[in-house]
Design a protein that fits this description.
The complex is a heterodimer of chains A (190) and B (676). Chain A has 190 residues and is mainly alpha-helical. Chain A has a single domain, classed as Up-down Bundle (de novo design (two linked rop proteins)). Chain A contains six helices and no strands. Chain A is rod-shaped and about 95 Å long. Chain B is globular, with a radius of gyration of 32 Å. Chain B is built from 18 helices and 21 strands. The interface between A and B is medium-sized, with 32 and 30 residues.
C-alpha cells in the first residue's frame, strides 16, 4: 500500500516538475521572440540615425561634386524609398539599396581630394561609417537571435510547446542576391 | 633571556623605500657575519620610516652599525628606555617674540626660541598605514619592485591631516634630555594664539602649530612615520577594525615619541665630538639628520657623506648608483600611464528588509528561547521532523528549486546572442572579451594586478574546523571589457563572479612580502583569495544601461571651492573687509557668492564632448532581481552551459530522491500514527 502511494507521490512531483519545465520553455520562447523584435528595433534606431545624417552629407558633397549629380540623386532616391517603405520586406530592400548607394558615393569621393579634405565631410563620413559598422553588427545580432529562436522551434522537447502554442519561424535579414556576386574591378591602363 | 634583552642595546635603522643594488651583497654579509636571515633583514632595511634592526650586546650592535653605515644607512645605537615624561594636552598658546607659552591641562610649558624640539605628527585612525599600503601596491603593480618612495613628506602630512591627526612634541635640553612633552589634537586647543596662521580648518590649525614650533625651535625634527615604522611596541591599529584603536594608538604614540627623543639624544651625543671637527653632524640650519633623511633618502646629510667617503670607494659608488636609480625612477614615473587608485568600498548599510526565511528563523529562535527549549528538545524535533518526512521534504523543495534555477540560467545563457561592444544596445547583453583595469586594483594577498578579487579569512573553530570569519571583495571597483571592437565598463557589484584562480595563503605570508606592519603570523588563520587577473578572457551576461554621469553639480563645485578657500591663508584675508582678523557671516556670504560664480563659470566652460557610444553605456546588475548577472572565466559559452546542465541534473536528481524519501517517511509516519 505504502509503495503505491510513494510511486503516486513521486509521479505527482515529477508531473509538477514537467509542468514547471514546460512553463520555462514557453517563457523562453516569449523571451526569444521579444529579443528578436527588440534587436530589429535596435537596428531601426541606427537606420534612423543614418537617415538623419544623410541630408547633411549630401549638402556638403553638392558643393564639390557638380559632375556627380547622378550619384547624389541615387542616394536621395534611396533615402526616399526608405521613407516610403510600408512592410518589413520593403524596408529591408530600401535599406540595402541605401547602403549600396552610399558605398558608391564614398567610392566616387576618392576623385575629389578637396572634398576628402573638408572637415565637415570627414566628420560626417566618419559618423556614417561608424553607424554602418554598428548596423552591420546589429544585423548579425538580429540574425543570431532569429537563428536561436528557429533552432529552439525544431528542438525536442521545445517543439511540443512551439506546436502547441503556434510559435512560427522568423526570417533572417537577407541581402539582395545581386550583392553576393564578386565585385568587378577594372584597372585602367596608363 | 628577558633580562638580557632589557639590558641589550638596540640598533635602529632608517629604512630605504626602494631596492638598491648594494642591498644583495649587504644581505649576504649580514648573513655570514651575524647569521641574520635574509628575508627578515630585507624587511628591516627596505620600506618606509625606521625599523628596529637588531637587539644584542653593545659590541655586536656596534659592529652591525658600522657595517650598515658603510652601506649608506643611517643608524642609531641606543639603550631603550621607558618613557619618564608623559605628554600634556594643549589647551591654548601665547606667542611672544622670544618664546611660546603653551597652556596645557596640568602645567604651562615654555618653548624658548632656539630650543631643541622633537615632534611626531601622527594619525590615530591608522589610515596612513592603509593609504600607504594601497599606494605601495598600486606602484608595485605598475613600476615593479624598484618604484620610488610612495609619499613625499608633504604628501604624508596631507594624508595624516585627513585622518585623526595629533601632534606630540618634546622639548629637549642641550644634552638631549626631555624636559616637557605636549600633545596637541586638532580642534582641541584655542587657536587665537596662532594669530594670522589660524584658519577655519582645525586640521590646518594643527599644521600651523607644527610650523610655528618648527619656526621657534633651533633644531626641530618632526617625524611623520608613526605607523609606517616597524617597532614591536609602537604598532598602529586601524580604527575601522577596532573600536579601541585610537586609545591603543595613543599609547603606541607615546612610546614612539619617546623613541624619537632617544634617537635625537643619540644624535646630540654623537654631535659633541664632531663639534670640533670640520664636518658637524648637526647642520647649522637647525634641521637634524632625522629630519633631513625623512625628507628624502637620496639627500645624504653632510656628516654621513663624510663617514661614507672615509670608508673607501664602495661608499662613493653607492651614492652614484642611488643617483642613477632616482633618475630612472623619475623617468619611469613620467612614462608610466598611472591608473587612479581604486575607490573606497561603500559604507555597509544595515539591511532593513528581512527575507521571509530570516524572519521565520528569528521568530522561531525567539519563541524557542522564550520557551526555554533545550538542545535535547531540538534534537528530538529534528528526529521527529526526519521521521515525518518534513526535513527531506524541505530539502527536496530547495534542491528542486536550485535545479530549476540552473535550468533557467542555462536557457538564458543559450538564448542570449553575443553582442559586440561597438554596437551594444541597452538591455540584457552577453559579451566575450578581455578584462582591463580601470583602477590600479591589486589583490590584497598575492598583490597581483587584477580586475576583481575576493578574500575570505578563515579561523579554526572549536572543533579545529575552518570557519569563515570575514570576506572582502572588490565588487565596488569597476573594470573594462575589451572585445576588440571597443571597451565597455563593467560594474561587478551584485554579480555572480566565477574566478578560476584561487590562492591559499596565511597572514604572515602577506606580511613577509609587504614588510612588517606590526602583525605576527597566526597559524590559526587561513586566507583564500579568488581573483581574476588583468587580461583574462571573460564571459559577461548582464544588463547594459546608461552609465551614470560623473559631472559635478554646481552645489558640489561650490562646496569644493569653499573648502579650498578655507585652507588658503592668502585668499581668506581678501574677504576680511573690516580687517579684524575674523571672517564674519556677511564676509563669508560674499566669499560664498564669489565661489558660486567661479563654480558656474567652471561648469559652463566644461562643454561635454560627444562621447563614443560605448562610453555612455555600462554593464551592471539589472533593476529586476530575477535578471542574471554573471561574470565568469569561461573558455566558451558551451563550457558554461555544460556546467549549468550538470548542476541542474544533479540537483533535480537529488531533489527527486529527497522527494521519494519524504513521501515514504510521511506515509510511514501516517501509518504509525493511525496504528497508535
Amino acid at each position: 500500500m505504502i509503495t503505491g502511494w510513494v510511486i503516486l507521490g513521486t509521479l505527482g512531483v515529477v508531473l509538477i516538475g514537467l509542468v514547471v519545465y514546460l512553463i520555462l520553455i514557453y517563457n523562453g520562447f516569449i523571451a526569444l521572440r521579444n529579443n528578436i523584435d527588440r534587436n530589429w528595433s535596435n537596428i531601426d534606431v541606427l537606420l534612423k540615425q543614418r537617415y538623419d545624417e544623410l541630408p547633411k552629407l549630401i549638402k556638403v558633397c553638392e558643393g564639390y561634386m557638380q559632375h556627380e549629380q547622378k550619384t547624389l540623386e541615387a542616394v536621395v532616391k534611396a533615402r526616399s524609398l526608405v521613407n516610403q517603405a510600408r512592410t518589413d520586406e520593403q524596408n529591408m530592400q530600401a535599406q540595402n539599396l541605401l547602403t549600396d548607394t552610399l558605398k558608391s558615393l564614398f567610392m566616387v569621393v576618392e576623385r575629389y581630394p578637396n572634398l576628402k579634405a573638408d572637415r565637415s565631410f570627414q566628420q560626417l563620413g566618419y559618423r556614417i561609417t561608424e553607424i554602418e559598422d554598428q548596423i552591420a553588427d546589429r544585423r548579425e545580432l538580429f540574425n543570431e537571435s532569429v537563428n536561436l529562436y528557429n533552432i529552439r522551434l525544431e528542438q525536442f522537447p521545445d517543439i511540443i510547446v512551439a506546436r502547441g502554442f503556434h510559435f512560427t519561424k522568423r526570417k533572417l535579414w537577407q541581402i539582395d542576391p545581386d550583392h553576393r556576386q564578386d565585385v568587378k574591378v577594372a584597372w585602367q591602363n596608363g | 633571556m628577558s633580562a638580557l634583552l632589557h639590558t641589550a642595546d638596540q640598533l635602529i635603522v632608517r629604512r630605504r623605500p626602494t631596492f638598491h643594488e648594494g642591498l644583495s651583497p649587504l644581505l649576504q654579509t649580514l648573513r655570514l657575519e651575524f647569521g641574520l636571515d635574509k628575508v627578515s633583514v630585507r624587511q628591516r632595511l627596505q620600506g618606509p620610516g625606521l625599523a628596529l634592526f637588531l637587539q644584542s650586546d653593545k659590541q655586536t650592535v656596534a659592529r652591525a652599525k658600522l657595517l650598515l653605515e658603510e652601506h649608506g644607512y643611517c643608524c642609531w645605537q641606543i639603550e631603550r628606555q621607558q618613557p619618564t615624561v608623559s605628554t600634556d594636552m594643549l589647551r591654548s598658546l601665547d606667542v611672544h617674540g622670544d618664546r611660546i607659552d603653551f597652556i596645557c591641562k596640568t602645567q604651562h610649558v615654555c618653548l624658548e626660541r632656539g630650543a631643541s624640539v622633537v615632534g611626531v605628527l601622527a594619525d590615530l585612525s591608522g589610515g596612513v598605514v592603509d593609504k600607504y599600503l594601497k599606494r605601495l601596491l598600486a606602484q608595485s603593480a605598475y613600476r615593479g619592485a624598484h618604484s620610488a618612495d610612495v609619499y613625499t613628506r608633504e604628501q604624508k602630512i596631507q594624508v595624516i591631516l585627513q585622518g585623526q591627526p595629533v601632534f606630540d612634541f618634546y622639548l629637549l635640553d642641550a644634552l638631549g634630555n626631555v624636559q616637557n612633552a605636549v600633545q596637541a589634537m586638532a580642534g582641541r586647543f584655542d587657536v587665537d594664539g596662532l594669530g594670522k596662521r589660524a584658519s577655519l580648518s582645525s586640521r590646518q590649525n594643527l599644521k600651523a602649530l607644527m610650523e610655528l614650533v618648527e619656526d621657534y625651535a633651533g633644531t626641530a625634527s618632526i617625524d611623520c612615520d608613526f605607523g609606517l615604522s616597524s617597532f614591536p611596541d609602537c604598532q598602529v591599529e586601524i580604527a575601522s577594525e577596532n573600536a579601541l584603536a585610537a586609545v591603543n594608538n595613543l599609547a603606541s604614540l607615546s612610546c614612539y615619541g619617546w623613541l624619537m627623543t632617544q634617537l635625537r639624544g643619540a644624535e646630540l651625543m654623537a654631535a659633541k665630538p664632531c663639534a670640533n671637527s670640520t664636518a658637524p653632524c648637526v647642520p647649522e640650519n637647525g634641521i637634524s639628520i632625522l629630519e633631513q633623511l625623512s625628507q628624502g633618502d637620496n639627500a645624504q646629510p653632510d656628516c654621513l657623506t663624510g663617514v661614507v667617503s672615509d670608508t673607501g670607494r664602495e661608499g662613493v659608488s653607492i651614492d652614484e648608483e642611488q643617483g642613477d636609480f632616482a633618475a630612472r625612477h623619475e623617468a619611469q614615473s613620467q612614462q608610466s600611464n598611472e591608473l587612479p587608485p581604486p575607490p573606497d568600498p561603500p559604507q555597509k548599510r544595515k539591511a532593513t528588509r528581512l527575507s521571509l526565511v530570516t524572519l521565520g528563523g528569528l521568530v522561531a529562535g525567539a519563541s524557542m528561547t522564550a520557551a526555554g527549549i533545550s538542545d535535547d528538545l531540538l534534537s528530538l524535533l529534528a528526529k521527529q521532523g526526519m521521521a515525518a518526512g518534513v526535513i527531506p521534504g524541505i530539502a527536496a523543495a530547495f534542491l528542486i528549486w536550485g535545479g530549476f534555477h540552473y535550468v533557467r540560467l542555462k536557457r538564458q545563457v543559450e538564448n542570449t546572442p553575443t553582442s559586440k561592444v561597438r554596437s551594444l544596445a541597452l538591455g540584457m547583453v552577453e559579451i566575450h572579451g578581455r578584462a582591463r583595469r580601470m583602477y590600479a586594483l591589486v589583490s590584497p594577498m598575492s598583490q597581483s594586478a587584477c580586475v576583481w578579487y575576493r578574500l575570505r579569512k578563515y579561523r579554526k573553530g572549536r572543533k579545529k574546523k575552518w570557519r569563515l570569519i570575514q570576506q572582502i571583495d572588490s565588487s565596488h571597483v569597476a573594470f573594462r571589457l575589451d572585445d576588440g571592437t571597443g571597451r565597455i565598463v563593467v560594474d561587478p557589484s551584485g554579480a555572480t563572479v566565477k574566478a578560476k584562480t584561487q590562492l591559499t595563503g596565511y597572514p604572515d605570508q602577506f606580511m613577509k612580502v609587504l614588510g612588517t606592519f606590526g602583525r605576527t603570523a597566526d597559524p590559526e588563520e587561513k586566507w583564500i583569495e579568488d581573483l581574476i587577473y588583468e587580461g583574462t578572457a571573460l564571459y559577461v551576461l548582464g544588463f547594459a544601461q546608461p552609465a551614470s554621469t560623473k559631472r559635478k553639480s554646481l552645489k558640489e563645485r561650490t562646496a569644493h571651492r569653499l573648502r579650498q578657500l578655507k585652507l588658503d591663508h592668502r585668499a581668506l584675508p581678501r574677504y576680511d573687509t573690516d580687517q579684524n582678523g575674523h571672517i564674519d557671516a556677511t564676509e563669508w556670504q560674499s566669499a560664498r557668492r564669489d565661489a558660486e560664480q567661479e563654480a558656474l563659470r567652471e561648469q559652463l566652460a566644461e562643454q561635454p564632448s560627444r562621447p563614443v557610444q560605448q562610453e555612455g553605456v555600462m554593464i551592471a546588475k539589472g533593476r529586476e532581481r530575477s535578471l542574471p548577472f554573471i561574470i565568469t572565466e569561461a573558455t566558451s559559452e558551451a563550457d558554461l552551459t555544460r556546467k549549468y546542465r550538470l548542476f541542474s541534473i544533479s540537483l533535480l536528481a537529488a531533489g527527486l530522491v529527497a522527494t521519494v524519501l519524504a513521501v515514504f517517511k510521511f506515509l510511514q509516519f501516517l501509518d504509525s500514527t493511525q496504528f497508535n
